[in-house]
Amino acid sequence: MTWSSDSFSPLDALWLCLALCFLVAFIIHKASTQLPVVNRKSTLFILFQDLIRYGKTKQKLNRSKWLTVFDVPKRWFWHFYAISVCWNVFLLLLSFNCMHQLQPYPSWLTGMMEILAGVPVFDGHAPQLSTVLVQLLLCVHSLRRLLECLFVSVFSDGSMHLVQYLFGLGYYIVLGLTVLCSDKMARGPSTHLNQLDWMQTAGFLLFIAASLVQHQSMVLFAGLRKGKSGRVETLAHRVPEGGWFELVSCPHYFAELLIYISLGFVLGRFSVTWWLVVLYVLFNQALAGQLCHDLYVTKYESYPKHRRAFIPFVL
Q: CA-to-CA distance for 134 and 204, rounded, in angstroms?
């Protein structure tokens, strides 16, 4: 693995800011469990909880009627992955065109990258092969999650905040640009297929393993609401069992973190930008995992005491 010489960019500042926001939200949530009941009924507290919760963790939140105006169905999660597939496949095709036809990226795209990277992009240089591999794996990940949302997951009538929905729509757009910017801010010759090192190979294997864990978790989740015939019999929430659920309450969130770590390895160089993305994913998934874990612990008296929320044996 080589090191990139990219300086701290506006894009780095964006990801660092997002990571810190979710870290602060995580800390506030953990601390809020010690607040007096009267404080947990305040408008400010309810607004905060309304913004960080979604789905089953939001259903028992005692909100004012006007706050429900901003609810959108949680089942709209598939919109995020549909956007991701379309956008990142488009960027992947542009990268292939740049590599094989030596065609530069469109001016509007390079303009966006220059704003985010804070440095001029080098149109005369084809993207690194490792960068294209990351783009390809990101497309595979998004397509799998889209298919799972459409054909595996069984969504209830849970909701998410409009702000969360809009954030999710923009997230994968910025993520695709982040991959390209990480490539353009790096220095060094292009990587050829026979030059992929052991770290990139390990990253690819980790990507496959983490994707399988995540898929297994989604299948087990869906199975809680289906009968032996495979038909949906209930929309009630039950205690998940089997697979990595025996170690953590949210193995699908842990697998998501591993997937982003694996993409960092496949990138083949230490990019400050990408590892700030990983830091954001860590705090984002930790918050979501903790909210789910807290719900399980309070709702089910017999919930396994040894299970962690998000990372086995750690958190």
A: 9
Task: Give the residue from 234, 214, 212 showing the smallest Cα distance to 224.
Answer: 234
Pairing of strands 159-161, 71-73: antiparallel
% of the chain beyond a pLDDT of 90: 50
Both structure tokens of 234: 């209930």
Q: How far apart are CA 177 and CA 244, in angstroms?
A: 32
Report strand pairing: 269-270 vs 2-3. Answer: parallel
Beta strands in the chain (DSSP E): 2-3, 71-73, 159-161, 269-270
Whole-angstrom Cα distance, residue 263 to residue 203? Answer: 6
How many angstroms separate the CA atoms of 92 and 258, rounded?
22
CA dist 267 and 75 (Å) reads 32
Mean pLDDT of the chain: 87
Find, among 217, 236, 237, the residue nearest to 310 by Cα.
Answer: 217
Q: What pTM did the predictor assign?
A: 0.91
